[in-house]
Amino acid sequence: MSDIEIARKANKKPIQEIGAKLGISSDDLLPYGHDKAKISESFIKSVQDRKDGHLILVTAINPTPAGEGKTTTTVGLGDGLNAIGKKAAICIREASLGPCFGMKGGAAGGGYAQVVPMEDMNLHFTGDFHAITSAHNLLAAMLDNHIYWGNEQEIDIRRVAYRRVMDMNDRALRQIVCNLGGVANGFPRESGFDITVASEVMAILCLATDLADLEKRLGDIIVAYRRDRTPVYARDIKADGAMTVLLQQAMQPNLVQTLENNPAFVHGGPFANIAHGCNSVVATTTALKVADYVVTEAGFGADLGAEKFFDIKCRKAGLKPEAVVIVATVRAMKMNGGVAKDDLGAENVDAVKKGCANLGRHIENVKQFGVPAVVAINHFVTDTDAEVEAVKEYVRSQGSEAILCKHWAKGSAGITDLAEHVVKMIEGRSAQFAPLYPSEMGLFEKIETIAKRIYRADEVLADKKIRDQLREWEAQGYGDLPVCMAKTQYSFTTDPNRRGAPNGHSLPVREVRISAGAGFVVVICGEIMTMPGLPRKPSAENICINDDGLIDGLF
Amino acid sequence: MSDIEIARKANKKPIQEIGAKLGISSDDLLPYGHDKAKISESFIKSVQDRKDGHLILVTAINPTPAGEGKTTTTVGLGDGLNAIGKKAAICIREASLGPCFGMKGGAAGGGYAQVVPMEDMNLHFTGDFHAITSAHNLLAAMLDNHIYWGNEQEIDIRRVAYRRVMDMNDRALRQIVCNLGGVANGFPRESGFDITVASEVMAILCLATDLADLEKRLGDIIVAYRRDRTPVYARDIKADGAMTVLLQQAMQPNLVQTLENNPAFVHGGPFANIAHGCNSVVATTTALKVADYVVTEAGFGADLGAEKFFDIKCRKAGLKPEAVVIVATVRAMKMNGGVAKDDLGAENVDAVKKGCANLGRHIENVKQFGVPAVVAINHFVTDTDAEVEAVKEYVRSQGSEAILCKHWAKGSAGITDLAEHVVKMIEGRSAQFAPLYPSEMGLFEKIETIAKRIYRADEVLADKKIRDQLREWEAQGYGDLPVCMAKTQYSFTTDPNRRGAPNGHSLPVREVRISAGAGFVVVICGEIMTMPGLPRKPSAENICINDDGLIDGLF
């Protein structure tokens, strides 16, 4: 059966029953249909004094076209922990419409390790992304309106820093000239759109601790600079209040369920290649209050997702992760070892061994943060015993352990070994989490630290304009912010075609942007785009409602 | 008490109880919170063979800054009909975020004649507008993507007819150049954004009878022309299926309640000045199957809203309205009679009499459609008996009747006279509805017919390019479409400052656009904008969450 066939056969329970498993009463759930709900602000406030559960991060090797199954493993491990008698919940991100209509497909796990309702999660869900898009664009409209009606703040229209967003892959909007058409339409200027998942408002929603913190951070957004180079904030434009109102519902975490009827928090969805890539702090901290084990994921490979999870999310929210699971597949090892996609079906132990270098580097990297790691081999039917053994042996040689997991085919029954192992790791109390760099390090030094220690580049290439900009932000008091790297997810380098564990490369920095409200400096490296485009044949062309009234083509 | 204070004290019932009043079981309701729900497609299908109830249209004089209370009267009349023992429901439009953050304020009635939950209805509600925005912009992205990847359809990029939309008042986006930035970003071209309520996708959602009809109409959207002037359709871009999937939930009507716990359908929301201005056909036809009396409204004055309700919605959906209520206020009559807003508090019977000319012309106009009309005087505390009597006497002289209504202050108890009168009108069976013009009339003649018979203009001014374009569409087989006038709502003319009942003016047509999927030709007259701007001091500046956690400034 395909993922979608399995999802359609799901034996879903009313969302009130899922909430009850975590002690959340139906009064504290705002239903969206019968299988989705938002958790009330008052419930979240009421559990703040409780002890925290244990936090587990699921990350992965660099993604390959073979697919790794990070979300699938996150879901599987959550079900596995419940299966061995632990009270566990998972925390994952919401899906963006952009990739759904492009080529990525659904983002709700796979096989017998899925979160449902799959269609809703990959479409409008509870409307959070739409609320973020609206709040983001309201500020943009108010900013241009401010300039139009006299520009009291004396904004330098050449230095408007704030762009608009759309939850769409639309390359036509990357770079535009707006305010054309004469006096009634304002002052022409260059601008552009990013995809919503790259919005600073998305990052703020994911990092804010409550509505008051959300409003404060929204007010802190730098939208432009004056002629004298001083920043103009969203609160100078008086947009922070209305933006908060637009985001009030969106701030509440969403609760859904796995195929095994275990609770899943799905909230926030920044991409890990162009944003910080973690689900919301509110969802994670709430889950930690109501469950003993919380499994969360960070986007793409550990070089991007895990680094930002540790250096941005955990640093900001004071989270203490106690175990890391690095997901790998035999097929992805083979691709890293040089095998073409069409040849993945044939056994090739040598290629597996060769490709393990990519995995090895991620293991090393994760250990730098002081958290013990285990490798989950997400089993695929064509994997041979010799290939699996090659991965295990390699991982052992790196001082870690790799566990074969069959949750895709068997649900929780296929992943109890990993669940037991993770519990043992946590009970061993060996985690001593610390971020990679201290907050007081200089901004450029932070970039260099990540480039050298995580990406293993020899140097960072950045022209004077970029270095000057970083120094200017330091002078303005933003020097203690962490950096949020925007880089291709396919390689440790900025070249998406360089697989494995390359050395001797440089990290070219193209642009830096400050997210003063979210609290980080975005560092755009190589050719990465903050507004993706659609492929030659977008998956949207095949998406439709079929004769049975079901949605085809979405996955 | 203010509108919002009254709304906050509402004694709301669970939405399942409201559904039960109409015989809709809780299984057929998809809840959005505890006070909103969508009605299932299967329920709607199951009632198709039932007899229809009676349809009543509420329209108004040209709006003035004094406020008329059309929605308030629609809500009040619905409650009034229920109060006199009739099974009645109301059908109104959803609110747009644009005006909420600009200056219009809420769109859910007022005083003791409101629909709740007011905040939700004026913010994201059930996400329908966001779905429409997404579906609209997906087609735009797929269109530019098609051109980017080789332009197989041979689209003339100078003749791309399809713009993007945003649910925002953002003049900066009215006219843009997109696809800038070099080869990777496509072919630069001029374009722009309209507000979502002006989207053809919005019109299609409001006019489609079911999902299959929706998909067919979406496919019919003309997005561009080839070098040989032949049209390129949305289905040529293969976007119709995915757009339908995005709109699947949005197609289902929303059910909420009045302050008196009577059912209210709130679905679709095109503006009547730039679009056809009526709630959805699905909501109205469903309401007619489950209630004996259905009260609906059309936007702005009868020159725009009622004309399009009759000539577009009723024509297309085969609806047979049996009574029209024209809402007027003493204050608005005074303004039409030349009194300034600050002087409205003082009695001025002469000004009332003078201003009645505007009302008189709307009465005359409505009668041209063969439906009996009654005037509702929406009472305001400062109205004097002599002023009210002046309106009544004037209306009598026009062969109609005016009834004083106090629903704002008293709810249904204040409007039973009107309710009884409307029932009597319907039981009199005098309605013989017919559209103003036959479908087979030429497009330009249709414009002239509305201009002369409704706006009372002497002539239509349109240059050769526009007349040629209309003839071209006729040659392509679109000659039988009705026309959808886009014009200022403040006057019968295109000059918003000309109140009363002017004569001897001309109607300048600036642009024509074809909505082949919705099934009409949009005729843009005078200075009307399809993307509004924000005022100098947008209401968004005062919108916030107050210390009690309630939303301030939204109304």
TrEMBL record, chains A, B:
Q: Cite the GO molecular-function annotations of the record.
A: ATP binding; formate-tetrahydrofolate ligase activity
**Keywords for the protein's UniProt record, in alphabetical order:** ATP-binding, Ligase, Nucleotide-binding, One-carbon metabolism
- Which InterPro entries does the record cross-reference, listed alphabetically? Formate_THF_ligase (IPR000559), Formate_THF_ligase_CS (IPR020628), P-loop_NTPase (IPR027417)
Q: Which top EC class is given?
A: ligase
Please give the PROSITE patterns that the UniProt record associates with this protein.
FTHFS_1 (PS00721), FTHFS_2 (PS00722)
Pathway, per record: One-carbon metabolism; tetrahydrofolate interconversion
Question: In terms of domain of life, where is this protein from?
Answer: Bacteria
Enzyme Commission identifier(s)? 6.3.4.3
Cite the binding residues for ATP.
64-71
Query: A GO term (biological process) for this protein?
Result: tetrahydrofolate interconversion
A family per Pfam? FTHFS
Catalytic activity line of the entry: (6S)-5,6,7,8-tetrahydrofolate + formate + ATP = (6R)-10-formyltetrahydrofolate + ADP + phosphate
Family to which this protein belongs = Belongs to the formate--tetrahydrofolate ligase family.
Q: This protein is called what?
A: Formate--tetrahydrofolate ligase
Organism expressing this protein natively: Brevirhabdus pacifica
